[in-house]
Design goal:
Layout (H helix, E strand, L loop, with lengths): L13 E9 L3 E2 L15 H10 L6 E5 L5 E5 L1 H10 L3 E7 L3 H12 L7 H13 L5 H8 L3 H9 L8 H4 L6 H7 L8 H11 L3 H14 L18 H19 L3 E8 L2 E8 L6
Parallel strand pairs: 2-4, 3-5
Antiparallel strand pairs: 1-5, 3-4, 6-7
C-alpha cells in the first residue's frame, strides 16, 4: 500500500520500515504545544480518513525509552486520525535527535495556511537562530520570498510584553506592522489594548498611532471622539486664541493686528490681516 511513499529523509535515519501500531502508543509532537493549530481545519482530512478507514501515508516518529513513539512529522494527520477514531496507524521509525524533531515540527507548522502570522514569525526565527538554517533554504522550502520572511521576523522586534496580545483574534498582521511605528516608546501595551477593546481596523489603528506619536501620549478617550471642554472663563478663551494667532505669525511670517474690546457682557477679538500681495 505504501511502497511508493517517499519518506523524504536520509536512509540512515530510518530505523524501521512501515509498521502498524496502536494509536494510543503514539504521542503528539511536543514542539507543537506552543502553537495554535485549529482542529476545525482538519475537518476534510477527518472525513477522508473516516471514509477510507486508513491514512494514505505513514506518520514519521521517533521511539521513546518506554516503547512508545513521538510524532516527528505528520502531526496534523496524526490528529486527524485520532479525531476519525482510528485504532491503529502506520508509522516509520526515525533516528532523530530532539533538535531534528523540533526542526521537523517547525517546518510542518509553516505549511499550515491558517497559522497565526506571529506564530509564523516565531517559527522562522527559531529555524534561523536556533537551528542555523539559512533563510534562503527556508524560503525555498515554504515557497515564499526571502523578503516576505524577513518582514515576518521584523514583527519580533515588538516588545515581548505584548506578544500574547498579538495572538488575539482581533489583531491582524497589519495591526502589528502599524505597532512597529511606536519604536522604543512605552505606548505599546496601552495601544494594543485599545485596538482590541475598540476592535479597530488596520486603518483606524494607523490613525490612532499617528495621533499618539504626535501628542506623545495615549489619550484615555477615543481619538474619533475629540475632547470637548466647557470653559466658563472667557479670559482663558481669549488668551488661547491670542497664543494661536501669535504662533501663526511666527511660523508663516504674516502680520496680524489684533484688537480686543469689551462690548457689554462680551469680549470681542478683532483680527486684521493684510491681503496685499508682495511684489
Amino acid at each position: 500500500m505504501y511502497k511508493d511513499f517517499d519518506v523524504q529523509v536520509k536512509g540512515d535515519k530510518v530505523l524501521a520500515n512501515i509498521i502498524n501500531v496502536d494509536i494510543n502508543n503514539v504521542l503528539p509532537n511536543p514542539y507543537f504545544a506552543g502553537f495554535t493549530v485549529s482542529e476545525h481545519n482538519l475537518h476534510s482530512e477527518v472525513e477522508r480518513i473516516s471514509s477510507t478507514g486508513a491514512l494514505l501515508n505513514p506518520i514519521l516518529v521517533v521511539e521513546t525509552s518506554n516503547n512508545c513513539y513521538i510524532v516527528a512529522s505528520g502531526e496534523r494527520m496524526y490528529r486527524a486520525a485520532r479525531m476519525a477514531g482510528l485504532k491503529t496507524i502506520p508509522i516509520i521509525v526515525l533516528d532523530y535527535t530532539p533538535e531534528e524533531v523540533e526542526q521537523s515540527a517547525l517546518l510542518e507548522l509553516l505549511q499550515i495556511r491558517e497559522l497565526h502570522f506571529f506564530q509564523e514569525a516565531r517559527c522562522y526565527s527559531q529555524l534561523i537562530n536556533d537551528h542555523k538554517i539559512p533563510i534562503q533554504d527556508i524560503a525555498q522550502n515554504v515557497q515564499k520570498a526571502v523578503s516576505t520572511i524577513e518582514g515576518k521576523i521584523q514583527l519580533l522586534n515588538l516588545p515581548e510584553s505584548i506578544w500574547d496580545k498579538l495572538e488575539s483574534p482581533a489583531i491582524k498582521e497589519g495591526h502589528a506592522r502599524a505597532l512597529l511605528r511606536l519604536g522604543n516608546t512605552d505606548f505599546h501595551n496601552a495601544v494594543i489594548e485599545r485596538i482590541i477593546e475598540k476592535n479597530y481596523t488596520v486603518k483606524q489603528t494607523e490613525e490612532f498611532i499617528a495621533d499618539v506619536l504626535s501628542k506623545g501620549r495615549v489619550d484615555i478617550t477615543d481619538p474619533k471622539q475629540p475632547l470637548r471642554f466647557v470653559i466658563k472663563d472667557a479670559r482663558i478663551i481669549m488668551n488661547t486664541l491670542k497664543k494661536a494667532i501669535a504662533d501663526v505669525q511666527k511660523n508663516i511670517g504674516v502680520e496680524v493686528d489684533m484688537k480686543e474690546e469689551q462690548i457689554g457682557d462680551d469680549l470681542v477679538l478683532t483680527m486684521r490681516v493684510s491681503n496685499k500681495k508682495g511684489k
